[in-house]
């Protein structure tokens, strides 16, 4: 006779396994969907930052200020702005704790970024790294190449 697990054992296994399998699938560099407009427009000036690096509210804030996009006019035609904004919102981080501390949302000032990039921050402060937003200075491989438009 085969011993089958109890319902409680199955629930326990699922409660443990599901977050781990979801975490394995949820790679910040791999949006759940692709968007050619986002990739083309954002990587024209900088890396096309993956949507999962900020929560939806922050992306919508950034998209609403494209005329003053970190000191540059990055305005887009309304339809294109709405399309990219909707993509960012659908693929954004679900975790509100990723929000940056600045008035204008910045990935490089988000708590998770500061925790994970202490070495890069030290290099930047010493003038050995041009910008903390230059992910390709440290990160290499196909994921970063895809985000930079190369």
Describe it for me?
- By secondary structure, this protein is mainly α.
- The protein has one domain (28-148).
- It has seven helices and no strands.
- Helix 3 runs antiparallel to helix 4 (78-91).
- The protein is globular.
Radius of gyration: 19 Å
Strand portion:
under 5%
Mean pLDDT: 80
Which overall shape is indicated by the principal axes computed on the Cα atoms? globular
Number of strands: 0
The computed structural class is: mainly alpha
Q: How large is the count of helical segments?
A: 7
Distance between the termini: 59 Å
**Uncertain segments:** 10-25
Topology:
Blueprint (H helix, E strand, L loop, with lengths): L6 H19 L10 H8 L12 H9 L13 H14 L19 H6 L1 H8 L16 H7 L2
Helix pairs in contact: 3-4
Feature tags:
150 residues, mainly alpha, 47% helix
Summarize the structure.
The chain has 150 residues and is an all-alpha fold. The protein has helices spanning 7-25, 36-43, 56-64, 78-91, 111-116, 118-125, 142-148. The model is unreliable at 10-25 (pLDDT under 50).
